[in-house]
Write a structure and sequence with these properties.
The chain is mainly alpha-helical and about 120 residues long. It is about 85% helix and about 0% strand. The protein has one domain: Fumarate reductase/succinate dehydrogenase, transmembrane subunit (3 helical TM bundles of succinate and fumarate reductases), CATH 1.20.1300.10.
Length: about 120
């Protein structure tokens, strides 16, 4: 008899692994692009930096950078909390605090990117 097995925690671990790998690839690639861009076109003042952010594709790339960074941080920190914080109340408190902080950072980054469009 063939039994269908639930993907449960195995599936969750695979998704976490994929999020970590995909986000790290984007973060690394974007960092290399940014260093190359800043070396070849240094932003000397606010007007230059503002003109750089005036392009929609630049704001989208930065948005993806921040989303990747926040997801990467969430998966990594959550894994550390699950492995090393044994009291349930402490693990829950630290996880909720981290989630609130990362959401606040994401909203702050979104506000900056949206204000740059105006």
């Amino acid at each position: 008899m063939n039994h269908v097995r639930s993907l449960g925690s195995t599936h969750r671990g695979l998704m976490e692994w994929l999020v970590q790998r995909i986000s790290s690839i984007y973060l690394g690639g974007f960092t290399i692009y940014l260093i190359g861009h800043l070396v070849s076109n240094p932003a000397k003042n606010y007007a230059t930096w503002s003109a750089y952010f005036a392009h929609g594709t630049v704001r989208v790339a930065w948005g993806l950078f921040f989303v990747s960074l926040l997801l990467h941080a969430w998966v990594g920190l959550r894994s550390i909390y699950l492995a090393y914080l044994h009291p349930t109340w402490l693990r829950f408190s630290v996880t909720v605090g981290t989630a609130v902080a990362l959401i606040a950072l994401g909203l702050w980054a979104a506000n900056i990117l949206i204000r740059g469009a105006v």
